[in-house]
Amino acid sequence: MKQKSWLNSFSEKDVTNEALFNNRRQIVSSMGLALGAALTGGLIPLSAYACKADKVIDARQLKPNSWKEISQYNNYYEFSTNKEVVHLLAKALKTEPWTLTIEGEVKKPITLDIDALTQKFASEDRIYPLRCVEGWSMVIPWQGFSLCHLIDLVQPGSEARFVEFVSLHRPEEMIGQRGGGLDWPYREALRLDEALHPLTFLATGMYGKKIPAQNGAPLRLVVPWKYGFKSAKAITHIRFLKEQPRTSWNIAAASEYGFYANVNPQVAHPRWSQKRENRIGEIRKKRTLPFNGYAEQVASMYKGMDLSVYY
Ligand SMILES: Nc1nc2c(c(=O)[nH]1)N[C@H]1C(S)=C(S)[C@@H](COP(=O)(O)O)O[C@H]1N2
Ligand SMILES: [Mo]
Fold first, then answer.
1. Domain ranges of the chain
2. Which fold, 8-302?
3. Model-level pTM?
4. Which ligand 1 atom is at minimum distance from the Cα of 74?
């Protein structure tokens, strides 16, 4: 399925280096669709989720962080809890060959090579802010495709309610997996309607180059309205499930890492306020926006839910 580029005026091939990228880019954000009320039980009519995003200029005009800032300050516990050494340790990771398996409650389960996968979908550009639950943020220019295109391909069964993302488990190359830490492999999940939202993205590139290992090569989820830990790196399996699965961070500390984890300045982390954030490379703290600035596009999915309870 070939989709028209999400950002017509800007071809991915143009993005050969950072400076050129910054000159040519036009910031646009996806309006998303009116996805309707929160889905807590009923069948999901897939036709309601035609994977199309309206194109609008993003009034926020987000300025991307530099390649260096993005690729040398990383949370990736499979390697280290020290953000500044992750990029060095991640050199040990072999990302070729790589296969992705999609299984569970789907009509067309599939295992395919990452290159075959990326060729199926036209590359789109997204400039998304990433807000870590720890209180820092950066703006990252990604290339990839909306997850909903992939979901269209495998066709969830009528029982599917949740989508689980499983990261690579390879202690030989991921030194942080040799000790305890998290419950490996790293697992995250979304409700099916969240997974189908056109903002939900699978990244294969960054700044027009292949995504670096430390940022989640070769395939990484990006959910811009949720805290960064929801955006799993190095994905090997995507599973469609009937029930809400447990996720690695939630198992480690449920009170700090909720399943929903929507960016919410009103709800403090048990150990710090979430009202402000430290944008990497900037001196003054910024106000944190509800849903990381995407309330208009995503808030309707949570109608009727108390988001201080469904943390
Ligand atoms: N597999 C895996 N994915 C992960 C993590 C991790 O430790 N392992 N850390 C998460 C957290 S806490 C954040 S903030 C982001 C950081 O992404 P970045 O390093 O690309 O900025 O990745 C998320 N995805
Ligand atoms: Mo994070």
1. 8-302
2. Sulfite Oxidase; Chain A, domain 2 (3.90.420)
3. 0.86
4. 19
